[in-house]
Specification:
The complex is a heterodimer of chains A (594) and B (418).
Chain A (H helix, E strand, L loop, with lengths): L14 H34 L22 E6 L1 H16 L11 E6 L2 H8 L7 E3 L4 H13 L12 E6 L1 E10 H7 L8 H10 L5 E2 L6 H15 L7 H4 L2 H11 L9 H11 L6 E5 H12 L9 E4 L7 E2 L2 E5 L11 H14 L2 H9 L3 E2 L33 H14 L3 E8 L7 H16 L6 E8 L1 E10 L2 H12 L9 H15 L5 E8 L10 H9 L6 E7 L5 H10 L4 E4 L4 H9 L3
Parallel strand pairs in A: 1-2, 1-3, 6-7, 12-13, 12-15, 15-16, 16-17
Antiparallel strand pairs in A: 3-10, 4-10, 5-7, 5-8, 5-9, 5-11, 13-14
Helix pairs in contact in A: 3-4, 7-9, 7-14, 9-14, 15-16, 15-20, 17-18, 18-19
Chain B lengths: L2 H26 L16 E7 L4 H13 L3 E2 L2 E9 L2 H10 L16 H7 L5 E3 L3 H15 L13 E2 L1 E10 H11 L4 H8 L19 E2 L7 H15 L6 H4 L2 H11 L13 H6 L7 E5 H15 L3 E4 L3 E2 L1 E2 L2 E4 L7 H15 L1 H8 L4 E2 L13 H4 L13 E2 L5 H15 L2
Parallel strand pairs in B: 1-3, 1-4, 7-8, 10-14
Antiparallel strand pairs in B: 2-3, 4-12, 5-12, 6-8, 6-9, 6-11, 6-13
Helix pairs in contact in B: 3-5, 7-10
The chains are: A alpha/beta (594), B alpha/beta (418).
């Protein structure tokens, strides 16, 4: 008989074991909960985003820099790009270092101010920005506060940190001297209303203002609304949307020859075409000074001076701020202490005597108030074309929501557009080129927002492969056109001239004289299969009922540059080059002309 | 319970008691000044001073001189870094805890190296525009941490390092026209000018001058904007203590909205300081209320750029800014850093630096230094423009409380520049 005690079969663990098991289970639950929460957060972020605006395509590229980076990237508006680049190069050549021995560098990226605003709200590829006006900084902070509202009883966070101004220039109406005299300059004060009245009364009077993507265009648009309402301050959403005001703006806008990207493009066209191009245009005072300086130095420009008309009702300032973004690390790397130091060093550099005098010589009014604008060698001294004591008054800049309303309303009052996109889809466009082209066309269509704007499409290879006549850009029209673009396939030869002529003749048959009529043609190859020649196009232009502007784009190195230049010349438009990296941006820029 | 279990429970209890005892002892004997981050003795000691914009140029020049002078604390050389920031922006950052102050129960020694590295950028001191901003920040932290982070007494108390006040600045031609037609420069005069529908022709000025343009800092971007609105309320009610009820009173709000309608930029893009008043001249502002020091610093610029001499008047209800140098007493900065900040504070208050403040248009906080103590004093240089050594009337506005400021700011955002 086995007397040894039976082993106890304990069905349940002892209390101590319970405790250990309990702790283990608890820790496992914690770990699971953390993992679950993180996965859940990831799913939520994937589905609805993390509170930041959705980035677009290549904008999702994550911009990053080292934690001690001392390289400051500044987004600069096109109008200041050349001047600021020279300053940045001079700054970099000094080889300044931070306290921890990192070399400070300033890099520039050129960008329209409106795009700076959009990018600054995400994780941008820049830490500082130099738009043409502080207006844009206010818009960034306004949008930021909408995205991340302050808690009850708290102050809202700001995206824009410290800022400074390094140069200013008032926005003026630039006119050829004799055109200005015809308007009454310099004896009579001239205002926005005189220009607008002249434009509506005289069909031969050619004037222009840039698109609202930059401060000059925005001011010109605001000035029209003020003039339409008969006031110089107190513009409200209600006033801006009154029927009488809208009709006034529509009448004035109908006289604008075309819009465009800004000062440099206008100056280039003036140099090419002189008085035939424009009589007056809205620009910053600096453009007038720079033009006259080039003329005095004997550069190949039309031998006529420009003068600055300071509108009597008031104007605005292009005040050229340089501002730091308070990147807080919520969507990418935060602003580093060294980048902050680089910003400060660069602002000090821009405000030192040498830089400020260089800005004065370039035609700007320097921020350093000890510099006398009328001193000897100043471009303001002994000049009738500009006046350092002007302007006398400004228009009131409305709050951001009112400016938004003005811009939105403007899209429906601006001069309508009929534009044909003539697109090469021959065999050589196969692959990445076609993919990029489709994206660029989609981007162009997205930019055209006016309810009276129409877009058509001519796809060509061995002949016209697809012809989509002009249609209004309402939801249906837009959607249909985007589908056509999506279906485009690369094959066949290159019948460039035939395709352009097809679009041209269709615009002539419609003969819509109230609209801007235009063709934007792109090819990557050599013309090799057209029935018609450029001279046939020339003949068609000669017999035209309505003017049609033709923009030509050479996509890649193999494009027939000379032919495209000739077509642009015949169509009174512009020739541009592009490759896979900038074709989308080029289409966006061209869209600003409409 | 057997003996083994009893022993186990006893050991655990003793350990728990030891931990609790240590924590309680630490809390009872905590000295705010010596409660800092434990760091190895550095080769150089860096301190960061958040500095209000009106005193930033003076403080930066002083910091450069201080750094070059190899000042040291406990034998460690000090580097002062000045970080320019408007008082309102800084208050917002304290409010939202953007500088990442530690929660009450967390001590720096408990942090990982990575977390401690974040504290490297924590401000050591703050020079806001006015003492009331310190009180507002303290109130916010008291709610969060249960204690003050800026002290009002003792070694680390806030001490004013310079003083300035708000004064009227006008372009001479515009100021004279207003005085001749509407009388003494005051908020009431500004209001009458603002509501003149025909603008300057109705006010005795030239048609080319357009509408009357009131130059006033944007209250969303510059604490001076709020200060001037409080001063306007003071004159409206003829008293110095302004309440939430006062600023929310409908008739007052209508009056203030009419006054503000004469501002030239409602976009929020610019803070609009005296520097803007000089840079854009009479085109964007005929006159308005500015900090005296800002105005004095820009008078020469106005003369050079616009060839018109400006004039200064002192208002009936005066708002003072006292720029208190305030040391952060939390554990995020080390005791060495706190003492280094005090060394810089003493340097700013030295007679030599106080005299230099005169050339920036700041009134000395050190009573031993009169406003004409230096040849460079802007108070001497611009006497003909109306600047006075002693302010003629001393009806000083009292500091508003947080709710008054927030109510005014909210009203501005909803009604003037939404």
């Amino acid at each position: 008989m086995n007397t040894s005690p039976k082993p106890k079969h304990r069905r349940f663990p002892a209390r101590g074991q319970f405790l250990i098991i309990g702790i283990v289970v608890f820790l496992l639950l914690c770990a699971c909960a953390t993992t679950t929460a993180r996965v859940g957060q990831w799913l939520v972020n994937s589905l609805v985003g993390d509170g930041l605006p959705a980035a677009h395509d290549d904008e999702t590229a994550f911009f990053t820099w080292a934690a001690n980076s001392s390289e400051l990237t500044v987004a600069v508006s096109p109008v200041m790009a050349e001047t600021l680049l020279a300053q940045a190069q001079a700054f970099n050549s000094r080889g300044l270092t931070t306290a921890d021995g990192e070399r400070m560098r300033v890099e520039l990226v050129t960008m329209p101010p409106q795009e700076m605003v959009a990018r600054a709200l995400q994780q941008p590829n820049f830490q500082a920005l130099a738009p043409d006006s502080s207006l844009w900084l206010g818009r960034i902070d306004q949008r930021w506060a909408e995205l991340f509202p302050a808690a009850e009883g708290s102050l809202a966070a700001r995206r824009v940190g410290e800022s400074t101004r390094y140069a200013v220039s008032p926005i003026v109406i630039a006119a050829w001297e004799d055109a200005a005299r015809q308007l009454g300059w310099p004896e009579q004060p001239i205002g926005w209303q005189e220009i607008q009245a002249r434009a509506t009364a005289d069909a031969n009077f050619k004037w222009n203002h840039p698109s609202t993507e930059n401060a000059v265009g925005m001011l010109a648009t605001l000035a029209e609304f003020y003039a339409g309402a008969g006031i110089t301050r107190g513009l409200t959403e209600e006033i801006a949307t009154r029927q009488a005001v809208l009709e006034y703006v529509r009448d004035v806008e109908a006289t604008v020859r075309f819009y465009g990207e800004g000062d440099q493009a206008i100056v280039q066209r003036l140099a090419d075409e002189g008085r035939n191009f424009l009589d007056v245009f809205v620009t910053q005072e600096q453009t007038v000074i720079a033009w006259n300086q080039n003329q005095d130095s004997g550069q190949t420009l039309p031998a006529e001076r420009l003068v600055a008309i300071y509108p009597k009702e008031g104007t605005l300032w292009a005040d050229h701020p340089l501002a730091l973004l308070e990147l807080d690390g919520r969507a990418g790397p935060a602003l580093t202490a060294n980048q902050r130091r680089a910003y400060r060093a660069f602002t000090e550099f821009l405000l030192d005597d040498e830089s400020q005098l260089a800005l004065l010589q370039a035609g700007y009014r320097p921020a350093d108030l000890t510099i006398d604008l009328n001193a000897a060698h100043s471009p303001f001294a002994n000049s009738e074309a500009v006046d350092a004591h002007q302007p006398q008054t400004v228009l009131q800049i409305p709050s951001t929501p009112v400016v938004d309303v003005v811009l939105n309303v403007w899209r429906y009052t601006k001069r309508p557009t009929n534009v044909y996109l003539v697109v090469d889809t021959s065999e050589s466009m196969e692959g990445d080129k076609l993919r990029r082209t489709k994206a660029a066309l989609q981007s162009f269509i997205a930019q055209i927002q006016g309810d009276r704007d129409r877009i058509g499409l001519v796809e060509f290879g061995s002949g016209v492969k697809h012809f989509d006549s002009l249609q209004f850009m309402d939801n249906d029209g837009r959607s249909q056109l985007l589908q056509v673009i999506e279906r485009m396939q690369a094959n066949g030869y290159t019948t460039l001239v035939d395709a352009v002529r097809t679009a041209y003749l269709d615009l002539q048959s419609i003969a819509d004289a109230d609209a801007i009529n235009a063709i934007v043609v792109m090819t990557d190859g050599q013309e090799n299969d057209s029935h018609y020649k450029p001279r046939d196009l020339q003949l068609a232009v000669r017999d035209a009922q309505v003017p049609v502007v033709i923009f030509t784009i050479a996509f890649g190195r193999d494009a027939d540059r000379s032919l495209l230049e000739e077509i642009a010349r015949i169509g009174g438009g512009q020739f541009r080059r592009a490759d896979e990296t900038d074709i989308e941006e080029l289409y966006r820029i061209i869209s600003t002309y409409f | 319970m057997n003996r083994t279990r009893l022993l186990f429970v006893a050991i655990i209890s003793v350990a728990v008691l030891l931990v609790i005892g240590t924590l309680v002892w630490g809390a009872l004997t905590r000295d705010p000044a010596n409660n800092g981050l434990t760091v190895p003795r550095p080769e150089r000691l860096q301190i960061r001073v958040i500095t209000a914009l009106p005193v930033e140029p003076w403080a930066r020049a002083a910091a450069d001189e201080f750094n070059a002078g190899e000042h040291a604390v406990d034998g460690v050389p000090i580097d002062v870094e000045i970080i320019a920031m408007d008082g309102l922006t800084a208050l917002g950052k304290w409010d939202r805890n953007d500088f990442a102050a530690l929660p009450a129960e967390v001590r720096p020694d408990d942090l990982t190296a990575e977390e401690q590295a974040v504290l490297d950028h924590f401000p050591t001191a703050w020079i806001p525009d006015s003492r009331y901003l310190v009180e507002l920040a303290n109130a916010s932290y008291k709610e969060r941490l249960g204690r003050d982070v800026f002290l009002s007494d003792g070694q680390y108390r806030a001490r004013p390092v310079a003083v300035s006040l708000f004064a009227w600045g006008f372009y001479n031609s515009r100021g004279k026209a207003l005085q001749e037609n509407l009388g003494e420069i005051s908020w009431s005069t500004m209001h009458d000018a603002a509501i003149a529908p025909a603008g300057w022709p109705e006010l005795g000025g030239e048609a080319a001058w357009g509408f009357f343009k009131l130059a006033i800092p944007d209250p969303r971007k510059n604490v001076g904007g709020l200060a001037t609105m409080i001063a306007a309320a003071g004159e409206y009610y003829n008293r110095t203590n302004i309440s939430v009820e006062d600023v929310t009173e409908p008739e007052f709000q209508t009056w203030l909205a009419e006054l503000m309608s004469a501002a030239t930029d409602l976009s929020g893009g610019s803070a609009y300081t005296a520097e803007d008043f000089a840079l854009f001249g009479y085109t964007a502002g005929d006159g308005g209320q500015f900090l005296e020091s800002d105005l004095l610093q820009n008078l020469q610029g106005i003369l050079t750029r616009w060839e018109e001499s400006p004039i200064i008047h002192y208002p009936k209800f005066i708002t003072w800014f006292d720029f208190p140098f305030t040391v952060w007493v939390g554990p995020e900065t080390s005791a060495l850093q706190k003492n280094a900040a005090l060394a810089f504070q003493r340097f700013l208050l030295s007679e030599a630096q106080q005299r230099k403040a005169l050339s920036f248009g700041l009134r000395p906080a050190n009573p031993n230094v009169p406003v004409d103590a230096s040849d460079d004093s802007l108070f001497v240089r611009w006497q003909e423009q109306g600047v006075q050594d002693v302010v003629p009337r001393t009806t000083a506005m009292r500091s508003p409380n947080r709710n008054v400021l927030l109510a005014l700011l909210r009203w501005y955002e909803l009604n003037v520049a939404p």
